[in-house]
């Protein structure tokens, strides 16, 4: 039992020692990488950005300013070109992703919700603010006169089959039919 505990203690102590050694190595590696990046940055700046020497005369100073402005303009043009290229490539990537997604066939259409919208609002949404015509759906409906409705009501009362069936039902209705037949 004691022998087993000693082995466990030795194993945990060894693991902790290895962890600390690995952490120390990682810290030294990170420091080396940071120093290498700093040296690389200094070399790049020395190569691309020579130290600025200000001339003494006014004319030389103006020429230096003109050169700097020309460099700034060229750098701005390059930046703009790269931004446009980036936008184009991102748009192409999005289009390709959509095509890829459509080709997979896993696209589920979302359920459509019913929207209450008048005809004017619908045309305004489709055509934008240019749409000025008011679409009154009731304006084109046919006008119904009262006389027509009264005539139709009379015809309905006479030709209503429900009344005829009610009158003919039962013994009284058969008696009437029999008397009408004579």
From TrEMBL:
Keywords: Acetylation, Actin-binding, Coiled coil, Muscle protein. The keyword Coiled coil applies. One of its GO terms (molecular function) is actin binding. It comes from the Eukaryota. GO terms for cellular component: troponin complex. GO terms for biological process: cardiac muscle contraction; skeletal muscle contraction. It holds the Pfam family Troponin. Residues 27-106 form a coiled coil. Transmembrane segments: none annotated. The keyword Acetylation applies. PANTHER family: TROPONIN I (PTHR13738), TROPONIN I, FAST SKELETAL MUSCLE (PTHR13738:SF15). Troponin I is the inhibitory subunit of troponin, the thin filament regulatory complex which confers calcium-sensitivity to striated muscle actomyosin ATPase activity. Binds to actin and tropomyosin. Belongs to the troponin I family. This is Troponin I, fast skeletal muscle. The gene is Tnni2.
């Amino acid at each position: 039992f004691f022998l087993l505990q000693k082995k466990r203690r030795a194993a945990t102590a060894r693991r902790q020692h290895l962890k600390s050694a690995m952490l120390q190595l990682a810290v030294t590696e990170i420091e080396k990488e940071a120093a290498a990046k700093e040296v690389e940055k200094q070399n790049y700046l020395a190569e691309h950005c020579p130290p600025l020497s200000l001339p003494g005369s006014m004319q030389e100073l103006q020429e230096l300013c003109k050169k700097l402005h020309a460099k700034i303009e060229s750098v701005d043009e390059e930046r703009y070109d790269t931004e446009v290229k980036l936008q184009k490539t991102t748009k192409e990537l999005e289009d390709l992703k959509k095509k890829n997604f459509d080709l997979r066939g896993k696209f589920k259409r979302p359920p459509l919700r019913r929207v209450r919208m008048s005809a004017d609002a619908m045309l305004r949404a489709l055509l934008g603010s240019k749409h000025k015509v008011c679409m009154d759906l009731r304006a084109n409906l046919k006008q119904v006169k009262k006389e027509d409705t009264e005539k139709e009501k009379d015809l309905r009362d006479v030709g209503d089959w429900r009344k005829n069936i009610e009158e003919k039902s039962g013994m009284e209705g058969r008696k009437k039919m029999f008397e009408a037949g004579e």
